[in-house]
Amino acid sequence: MDRTLGFYIVQFLTGLADASALFLVACGLSLIFGVSRIVNLAHGSFYMVGAYVAYYLIGFFSEGGCAFWAGIVLAAVVVGLIGVGIEVLLLRRLYGAPELFMLFATFGVVLIMQDLSRWLFGAEDLLGPRAPGLAGSVNIRGTLLPQYDLALILIAPLILGVLWLLLNRTRWGILVRAATEDREMSDALGVNQTRLFTSVFFLGSFLAGLGGAIQLPKGGANLLMDLNTIAEAFVVVVVGGMGSIPGAYLAAVIIGELGSFGVLVFPESTLVLMFLVMAVVLVIRPHGLLGQAGAGAHVAFRAAEAVLQPASKKLKLLGLACLVLILVMPVLVGTFQLVLLTEIALFALASMSLYFMMGPGGMVSFGHAAFFGGGAYAAALLVHYLQTPMELAVLLAPLLVGLLALIIGWFCVRLSGVYMAMLTLAFAQICWSIVFQWGEVTGGDDGLLSIWPSQWASDKIVFYYLTMILSIGGILVLRYFIFTPFGYTMRACRDSALRVDSIGINLARHQCLAFAVAGVFAGLAGGLYVFSKGSVFPDEMAIPRSFDFLFMVLLGGVETLFGPIAGAAAFTWLHDQISRTDFWQLILGCIFVLLVVAFPQGIVGSINVRWGRFFANQNH
Amino acid sequence: MTKLLEVRNLAKAFGGIQAVDNVSFELEAGQLLAMIGPNGAGKSTCFNLINGQLYPDRGGITILGQRTNGRKPRDVWKLGVGRTFQITCTFSSMTVLENVQMALLSYHKQTRSLFRKVRRLYVNESMELLELVGIAAQSRRACGVLAYGDLKRVELAVALANRPKLLLMDEPTAGMGPAERSQLMELTSAIVRTRKIGVLFTEHDMDVVFTHADRIIVLNRGELVAQGTPSQVRANVKVQEIYLGTGKTPGTAFPTS
Amino acid sequence: MLQVEDLNTFYGKAQILFDMRLAVKRGEIVVLLGRNGAGKTTTFKSIMGIVRPQSGKIMFKGRPIQTLPPYKTCALGLGYVPEDRRIFSGLSILENLEVGKQPPRAGLEPWTPARLFELFPNLGERPHQRGGTLSGGEQQMLTIARTLMGNPEMIILDEPSEGLAPVIVAQLARTILRLKQEGVSILLAEQNLNFANYVGDRVYIVYHGSICYESAIAELSAEAYEKYCALQIGGG
Questions:
Q1: Residue B66 confidence (pLDDT) above 70
Q2: What is the predicted ipTM?
Q3: What are the residue ranges spanned by the domains of chain B?
Q4: A308, A486, A501: residue with CB nearest B113
């Protein structure tokens, strides 16, 4: 292709056009989060559904300029109403529950909407209709730019202006800004928060639907849009600055331009560039380009707050009983169950490492799959390219992942609470996209095959014992760490950043190390996992896998040290039961939602309330 | 006498509002220096500048002969500065003992250790500090459930863990009853005299200020309006006008028994 | 006007209020005295519906309100001024007032920004200044003005004089008496005895989540004051 000035202008304008849809999603996300403190993971799904609904509505209205734009606006309204439905039927029941659980419920919605979309709209990618009257191109110094791109370029500033007027010049806008600052106070001043939330949810969902709908002629509609969009929207929110709508626009433009020009520089993965920009912005301005220090800083996931107690005698006996049971298992059950148990043990180790960050560390990660999958890929690549023996691969994988975690952690610890979580998700998505897009090295979608254990461990029973030793050992080591000075320092950092700083402790450095420790153990689990399966696919790094781990921890209850193990067992068993059905994501999503509504403390957490006294430390 | 703290022409503005403007003062070892002034006078900003939480726009801060402008709180702490907060700031998921152990772990550079369990580390040293501030009996209780006045004592014990030369105390007695207040301030005075350290504190209770401070500085709208001994400050016309009041309007006649 | 009976409120497992009871008559200024942590703020939050009491009865103008959410309590004519002021710092003075705005109430002259700026001249000088950049005293004025925008028949003030310079406290006291003249009933929490003496009609002393003393303010004897101080010591 000829690189003339016109070419660069067109590339720039294309970037601006790409930014529009992204901006709409990101500012919807930001508005909803500001008022309700819900990180709506389903926002990407709203965007996807907006595209699908617009496709069918435009088709239904048949030809004509009016039909196209009416279809787009109507699609946005439909999505807005879906958002309202979800808020009224589900989220409203959860206000007051821990933020993490609300967030989890929205991930259940993601799964449900994913399968419903597949069922309603089909798995085929859809090509969008052309906008009537804007189907042609304009010639810019010899390079063609679709006319529709010009329309997209105009839409974003228009919406930005309308939103600004809405927020600054109307009573509704003033109430939204007041509620964003202090919900309880505006309630006490006579503002009906429930109604305000619902209206904000409508607007936010409307914007996401509109974003999906307007990009239809350009990008069409497909089932990958939901998670890709939410990850990009998180990056936009973090880079632009918390709660700043002009910031969101600026960041969306930057991301759009990066996508547009990045293809020229590094076609394999434009997301890597996104990563670099995000890194630079966060180093220079930790609160984002237009964000203010302190905004949203008070939003943190509160986890375990109880004083740490060493295991009681009864709990130790229970653990011992479990150990004996695990030891004799191969005699009692068949190979198939042994494989399942192996998987449970590895997931338990991975979710324990996530718990280590979340519970004592107070750092929620939405991207733990990057460490688990990273371990799996590290081991697989070592075997595939260097013919490394299993023993060495299982040793090196955790170290490599520890290094990766150190790098990711170095950026993430600049933020806290939900923003840190968003950032971990964005990083994980970047790791996934590298693995997914860099086919020559990683095998892309086809994965890496034939990664088997060494000869001596190839027997299922031997491998079972090997896994059990390493994962139970890992879990106990992690548990021990919690009682050491480093574990205490992590908890101190979680409890009070201010106090930690004033007794001379470098918070960022310790949190970063906590990332690395968690990474090492998740990497160990991942490294072993690849040998138990014999292959690895990008799915092990994808967002749903991250949420699997999060779910295991939450299912078990964040308040308990052994919660993650129970959670991993319950989840893996459940997953095994439903994964053979056609719409298993739908079922899993419904289970997520129902569990969150029924057990806001997690299963072990709920048992703990009842049985806590039984297992409590008697000598205290 | 050595100068522990020297503040010269300190200034800090937030978005056009001059929170601290051209403030200079110093503090010598063995002295309690009170900083008073109405809310919004710039006391907390001053504290945060000295402590390193904020970066000054202008002026200089010298602690124990070292210029500390722009140093982070943890680096200021390493020079030998302890700090207690206005709104108590302890590790709520830990016991009183563990809170002090945490400060000692940091002092002994043990925070990255992954080997020994905390349960056996620096227990005696921590208990000594807790006994000093009179809260040893509650050492096994969680900080999250402690009464406000007791938390203030924990803060003091934590602040003393690195054997500071300079203590910064932001409203050390807020939320305490009158007897408890004077008890805590007498304890602080005793520590100041025996260990030859300096204390800079803010306080709303004029009883505490005029009974225990060796010197007082008065801030108003970011500016230093007066400094001197308690009797000098009490007699200062300007201070009476802006802060203490003349006693003719309600709420101004403070019970000064 | 307001009657609170046998109120028991918990935070988690910890009980904060124990059979709390109090009453405010129309046009009266009632003062709750008590040290930090005695339960004054929790009492107010229970009345407003910000925290839900476990048991007990709260009657406002003869209607039970203990199960109402805060915005409904406010709509009935009960305004709340919190201890920490809680100004919307990113909103201008006028916008802060807008948040508090409620429909006019029969029998009361409705509050408008213009009328409030008469009462609080400082605020009227810069109506577009952001709340977060105001001084402590101005913020206290704004938070009262904001609550008045709801045209309340009664307001609850949580430690209004805390952290203010004595000259500002005096100004505040005059404002409160002026509101009384306007027909607004007032329930306020205080630790400043002089302030309480100057504005109050009746006084309750709160100790460990319940009322331990009650009288007209004129009868608040030296003896009772001693007792109040003694409790402060005993509470430590």
A1: yes
A2: 0.91
A3: 1-80+164-251, 92-163
A4: A486
